[in-house]
Amino acid sequence: QVRLEESGGGSVQAGGSLSLSCAAAGVFDNVHNMAWFRQAPGKEREEVAAIFRRSWYTFYADSVKGRFTISQNTTNKAIYLQMRNLKPEDTAMYYCAASLNGGRWSSTLNYNYWGQGTQVSVSS
Hints:
The protein has 124 residues and is an all-beta fold. The protein has strands spanning 2-7, 10-13, 18-26, 33-39, 46-52, 58-60, 68-73, 78-83, 92-99, 113-114, 118-123. The strands form two sheets. Strands 2, 4, 5, 6, 9, 10 and 11 form a seven-stranded mixed beta sheet that branches. Strands 1-3-8-7 form a four-stranded antiparallel beta sheet, with no helix packed on it.
């Protein structure tokens, strides 16, 4: 069992920065990769970024490339999302997720565990 808990959300003005953290606990031997997703009101959950635990490969949605950075701490199993130059369209609930089987990093179907989410609001 893997437990995930996000923190670090908040409200900022456009152009500002926020850093999200995802604390993880449980049996992590089989976790292949972890990711951040987000969901705005009335929209589907969408991929933001992913990191593969052993290779450290990272992937980003086109909408956040160059502005967001995903990282991990393999000692405490946490992952982080540093967000810069935030835009109003980044406003959403942000979720941390863990996958046991890899696969297409951007598909929610490949993730077995989810956190409860943390809200990010960006005003213009």
